[in-house]
Write a structure and sequence with these properties.
Helix content is 48%, strand content 0%. By secondary structure, it is mainly α. The radius of gyration is 24 Å and the shape is flat.
Length: 91
């Protein structure tokens, strides 16, 4: 059994950033599926009937998850870490 030594050169495996072949194949399949006009029509009907969860999951695989932004409004109090015990005691 080989032992690990600090600073050794990486040997074998995929180079950094190379996608798994199965992932590439899956993304292409789902992309083709999502871009099919017949599937789009069916998807529209499913959305209108409230039954599109699986379709949205498939679209996430093809196109990535949509970005979510959170807007914080109102006032809030910034506290320091040492003050956390005081907050817990107050309640």
């Amino acid at each position: 059994m080989a032992t690990f030594t600090v600073g050794h050169k990486k040997m074998g495996g995929r180079t950094k950033g190379t996608p798994n072949k199965a992932t590439v194949t899956w993304k292409q399949f789902v992309t083709d599926l999502c871009e099919d006009p017949a599937v789009q029509k069916s998807t529209k009907e499913s959305i209108l009937n409230g039954k599109a969860e699986l379709i949205f999951k498939a679209a996430e695989h093809a196109f990535g998850k949509p970005t979510e932004t959170v807007k914080i409004t109102g006032e809030f109090k910034m506290i320091d870490w040492p003050d956390l015990e005081d907050v817990r005691e107050d309640g």
